[in-house]
Amino acid sequence: MSYPQKRIQDLREIINFHNYRYYVLDDPEVDDQEYDRLFRELQDLEGKYPDLVTPDSPTQRVGAPPLREFGSVTHAIPMLSLGNAFDVEEVVEFDRRIKRFLKSEDVVEYVAEPKLDGLAVELVYRDGLFEVGSTRGDGFTGEDVTQNLKTIRSIPLRLLSTKNVPIPPVVEVRGEVIMGKKAFNELNRIRVEAGESRFANPRNAAAGSLRQLDSSITARRPLDLFCYGVGVVEGRSFSTHWDVLQTLGGWGFKVNSHVRACRDIRGAMGAYQDIEGLRENLDYEIDGVVIKVNSIALQNRLGAVSRSPRWAIAYKFSPRQATTTVIEIKAQVGRTGAVTPVAVMNPVFLSGVRISRATLHNQDEIEKKEIRVGDTVIVRRAGDVIPEIVCVVKEKRTGKEIPFLMPAKCPACGSPVVRLEGEAIHRCINVSCPAQVKKTIGHFASKRAMDIDGLGDKLISQLVDKGLVRTVADLYTLKAEELIGLDRMAAKSAGNIISAVQTSKQKETDRLLYALGIRHVGEHVAHVLLDRYPDIEELMGVSEEELMALDEIGPEVARSVRCFFGLESNRDMIGRLKQVGIKMVFPKKAQRTDLRGKTFVFTGTLQRFSRAEAEKMVASLGGKAGSSVSKRTDYVVVGSEPGSKYVMAQKLGVPILSESDFLAVVNASFTA
Ligand code: JCF
Prior knowledge:
It is a single chain. By secondary structure, this protein is α+β, with helices and mostly antiparallel strands. It has six domains: 3-61, Helix Hairpins (Orthogonal Bundle), CATH 1.10.287.610; 83-316, 2-Layer Sandwich (D-amino Acid Aminotransferase, Chain A, domain 1); 321-403, CATH 2.40.50.140; 434-506, 5' to 3' exonuclease, C-terminal subdomain (DNA polymerase, domain 1); 509-579, 5' to 3' exonuclease, C-terminal subdomain (DNA polymerase, domain 1, Orthogonal Bundle); 599-671, Rossmann fold. It contains 24 helices and 28 strands. Strands 14, 15, 16, 18, 19, 21 and 22 form a seven-stranded antiparallel β-sheet that branches. Strands 2-13-10-3-9 form a five-stranded mixed β-sheet. A four-stranded antiparallel β-sheet has the order 5-4-7-8. A hairpin with a 2-residue loop joins strand 15 and strand 16. The radius of gyration is 34 Å and the shape is elongated. 8-hydroxy-2-methylquinoline-6-carboxamide (JCF) binds next to strand 3 and strand 8. 8-hydroxy-2-methylquinoline-6-carboxamide (JCF) is lined by residues 80, 82, 113, 115-116, 120, 176, 228-229, 290, 309, 312.
């Protein structure tokens, strides 16, 4: 071999190797200057000896002359799309469907991987050399974007071979072309500076860049490719999808580092949780997790229906926001008289939940966001729970939208609505406002308060409207005859309600104090107050200063408690509750042994108390609440929809407690 030929070949190999270290492994071995020096040397030599230029030379990545149009490429094996799952049930059903189809109850292994939000492509390698690359197109035929793909540095122009394993004569590789978030932002920054339009999102930017007829433009766009599968591979078969991924890595492709092999569908769900947790910190956008049957033999038996494989599913992350329109803004009166504007919207689904209302909090909030009736708005679930309007899509305005004005009179009782100095909210100050009374009674009867079964909003509304009930104390003197004849109220249901009301007299005083609905007195504060003043009648006389002296009781709570018991009508009501036989004294605090040295970790949503309350319970008994599960964790308490900590606990064999198990453990640490 002549000198230039040998040197050119060496340079190519060295540069390709450094490309691989830099773009695929993200672990460069040389600095930019060294790399540039090698690259220029190769360019110079190839300039002098144009006959020696080969298609796998790194100099061929810079872009070719513009095309008039893309050629088309037929995929030897159609590129299928994925069916979607939006919740756990649909994933469980996916697993069941597979077992039904296979007529087997054997556990199915899966591989879970982040689902990249980009463009699917296929690359064909003949004798190890990159030959043709195409977009997915309609799944059968796509566009020939070979020149453009060649500019992506993480795509090997020649497959790497590992010792002793020959490269198959034909290899088709599939993957997703993406643009990273950082690169996307930087690209947009430069475009705006140059007076060009911005790309809406990384996916659009990647698509626009890949579908350039002038590949020298693509060459300047920071694209990347992650590979996740193969098409035709001649002369090599795979036993598992995991094996496919490992082999792709070995050939020099970038394979996502967060792919996980999972022993069963539960494991795949755990991987989903974990990957969702990584989402914000990844430099590329993902919109779900792809779950695939690991065994290729099973994949082949399962086949496909309507252009999606039966052996794979895209478990989508819940959409974070959606667009809808505001039909009406209602003023709602709450338990404390706060008059809150609520937007009524065309229903939309967010994380599988139908959303048709969102609180707008107060007049200022509406003005700040400039929300009007008739507006098109973007809604999301704040912290993924409470629906809120993020913003108005002003471009959609027709001019017919109507601004909202807080009514001057309470929509429930017609009393004036006032806005107190320094407060953002408007209030109806009529203490006997029926809307407030109904909400107060509803709270009193609710599950975690006095738990009066059957006393729902509709019934309460009738009782108040008919004048049968004015305060919660009236509930206890209700007679069945008074109920009969109300909407859908026959003798039997009337009897049930009366007896539920009577049974509630046995409830402990902590529930009563919470049930009274004193502002700022939740379940936890109720306990704090009763700890020091177990007798409600004593608590009624305690001053604001004395209350504030208690641990955890601040001026707001103290004022609110004082204010509540300061009202004669409230003291009368308590007197009547006592008369009918409701307990007014909390049993003396039990003697505590303790949970000293024990560590609890909570995961999922608890029903009976908040996580903060549960952690306080543990702390008050000398235990500790940890935030992550390790071998040193004594218990993991699992609520509904637990996260990865649950999986971790199973893995480490840490004892797992349900909410009631937890209560039992806590109660066992008291001795009577
Ligand atoms: O990341 C993706 N968007 C992605 C798409 C990943 C995969 O493993 C896929 C895919 C589309 C089809 N697998 C198939 C079979």
